[in-house]
Amino acid sequence: MRHVNIAAALVASMLLCSCLYNDDIPPTAKIDGAVGSVSQADLHAVMLRFNEWISEVGHPQPVYRIHVVSPDKIDIHYQIAPGPHYPPECRPFESC
């Protein structure tokens, strides 16, 4: 019975954590560039701002690359739709 309670608590905490990181960095996004010049908090803040911006201008888009240009600038690369007719796009953000 004790193992069941521990397992249930573990599953509940995983579900809670997944809700907390709704605007987290996509696991499929490649992060490159001057990564050591920014913190994880900076990356998360930029992704949050990207998600807010994209929700204002259209539907959520898959982010495939996060390029840290400098400590002050991070580029978010995304694809509007799959296929060769839709070129990849990039949105620059100032890091916090």
Explain what you see.
The chain is α+β, with helices and mostly antiparallel strands and 96 residues long. The protein is built from two helices and four strands. The protein has helices at residues 2-20, 40-57, and strands at 30-33, 63-70, 73-79, 88-94. The protein has a four-stranded mixed β-sheet, with helices on one face.
* Averaged pLDDT: 78
Radius of gyration: 17 Å
Distance between the termini: 48 Å
Q: Give the strand line-up of the largest sheet.
A: 1-2-3-4
| Percentage of residues in strands | 25-35%
Please count the beta strands (DSSP E, at least 2 residues each).
Answer: 4
Model regions low in confidence, pLDDT < 50 over at least 5 residues? 7-22
H/E element sequence: HEHEEE
- The geometry reads as globular
Q: What oligomeric state do the depicted chains represent?
A: single chain
The largest pleated sheet is described as: 4 strands, mixed
Query: Can you count the helices?
Result: 2
Helix share bin: 25-40%
SS-derived structural category: alpha+beta
